[in-house]
Amino acid sequence: MFVHAHAVHPQWDMALGLVVAQLRAHMVLPKHRLQHGPTPALGLVYITDRLAGEAEALLAGLRAAFPNVAHWAGTTGVGILATEVEYWDEPALVVMLCDVPAHAVRTFHGRAPLPSQHADSPVHTALVHADGATPDLDGLIGELADRTAQRVVFGGLLSSRDQALQWAVSGAEAQAVWESGLSGVGFGAQVALTARVTQGCTPVGPAHEVTAVHGNVVLSLDNRPALRVLLQDLGLDMSEPARLMPVLRNTLVGLESAAYQGATASNAQERAQVLLARRVGQFGAQTRVRHVIGLDVNNRGVAIGDHALVGDTLHFCRRDASAARADLMRVCAELRDEAEDPDAGGGGLRGAVYVSCAGRGGPHFGAPHAEMKIVRHALGDVPVVGFFAGGEIGYRHLYGYTGVLLAFQ
Questions:
Q1: What is the pLDDT tens value at each position of the chain, 409 positions in all?
Q2: How far apart are CA 202 and CA 323, in angstroms?
Q3: Which residue range is the domain that position 272 belongs to?
Q4: Are 258 and 172 found together in one domain?
Q5: Residue 227 has what DSSP assignment?
Q6: Which of 17, 121, 250, 315 could anchor a disulfide with 203, C-beta 3.0 to 4.6 Å?
Q7: 231 and 252 belong to one structural domain
Q8: Angstrom distances, CA of residue 125 to CA of 144, 149, 194, 284
Q9: What is the largest CA-CA distance in the chain?
Q10: CA pair distance 364, 195, nearest whole angstrom
């Protein structure tokens, strides 16, 4: 039993009332039979930033309406997601109640961090919500992943035009809403989960090895000036600024750490994505997509929105809606097939969380709600909730322009 509800209304209490009424109506349907106790153990709540000022009141209302739900988690987004629906620029919320074993779920936040994987009841993986302004965020994500038995976590960065808030609370804890750091839900081995990362960009040239770098400026690729390589891959030169600048604004870089060369990823799912992506000429889960933020003409370098290291692999790339659509359909189909495989003990999908980049969504896929319609078509009749993020978290990396899909079996 995974039930979800969503509503939009200019008055927060009316939106809350609509969602509560929908959830109660769903829970009495015969098809929604609980497997793990008298009530769902986990509530996931996502709200648009238009309701951020009412986050505490909304969460208090949900906890009062469903007092036996032991754990709650979620965050704000510039947009939020529900099955077949994307809410942007309007006061909306979506809630999913998840029938999972209560003893196999624990929330975490700054005052109650995730225990190490050597604890008595180790967490196998986690759903993470993080403030993008948190210092050393990459390192904290890796450290959090190391606290799980599978050494992987999934989720996204809060996104908001005003207050960026997150919540994680268990039992009778008083404070539920947090303004910084990382929070989320850790899942034990009894919660069957599978996940995928889908990229939204495709390479425009061959892979290059980073051979010299200073700060965030890549100075040389394959022992050639990086600026010359960029112009060659784009088929342009500096004498045509009118053509060059519009193309550069739509050009990004895909970085692959030297530690992941040869598909040495730390997780079997990730290794499979690495190999498949290389075979079909797409980016896989090991690739971080970042902006080209400037040109260093004097040093013939290219400034990027990340720090590359000598030995890393770099592709110049573009955002590509058709490739993003095809890759999203592929990962959804893979995930569904894995969950329904009787030889692997799969009993089908029960619910999913989808975190997509705020730069994606319906408009990038050609129409309002288009991204979620693709997910609905590929996954089938499965409740899905999520949000549009300022960055996506998958395995132990921070991504951009991606979608992260975490599904319960």
A1: 899 999 999 999 999 999 999 999 988 876 667 766 668 999 999 999 999 999 999 999 999 999 999 999 999 999 999 999 999 999 999 999 999 998 999 999 988 998 887 667 789 999 999 999 999 998 999 999 999 999 999 999 999 988 889 999 998 888 899 988 999 999 999 999 999 998 878 888 889 999 999 999 999 999 999 999 999 999 988 887 888 888 888 899 988 887 654 444 455 555 555 444 444 345 666 788 888 999 999 999 999 988 899 999 999 988 778 888 888 998 899 888 888 887 766 678 999 999 999 988 767 788 889 999 999 999 988 999 999 999 999 988 888 888 999 999 8
A2: 7
A3: 201-319
A4: no
A5: H
A6: 315
A7: yes
A8: 10, 7, 10, 20
A9: 71
A10: 23
Residues 306 and 395 in one domain: no
* Domain boundary residue, one of 319, 337, 358: 319
Specify which residues 81 forms β-bridges with. Answer: 86, 386
| 120/190 same-domain check | yes
Overall size of the chain counted in residues: 409
Q: What is the pTM of this model?
A: 0.84
Q: Please tell me what DSSP assigns to residue 181.
A: S
Q: Tell me the one-letter amino acid at 200.
A: G
405 contacts 372 by C-beta, under 8 angstroms:
no
CA distance 404 to 360: 12
Angstrom distances, CA of residue 388 to CA of 82, 88, 160: 11, 9, 10
Q: Which helix (H) or strand (E) holds 126?
A: strand 125-130
**What tokens does 180 get?**
């910084």
Are residues 302 and 161 located together in one domain of the fold? no
Q: Are residues 345 and 389 in the same domain?
A: yes
Distance between CA atoms of residues 238 and 138, nearest Å: 35
Q: Which of 268, 299, 319 is the last residue of a domain?
A: 319
Count: domains in the chain = 2
Considering the domain architecture, whether residues 215 and 358 belong to the same structural domain is answered as no
In terms of domains, do 362 and 264 share one?
no
Helix (H) or strand (E) holding 357: strand 351-357
Q: Where are the alpha helices (DSSP H) in 134-288?
A: 137-146, 226-234, 241-249, 268-280
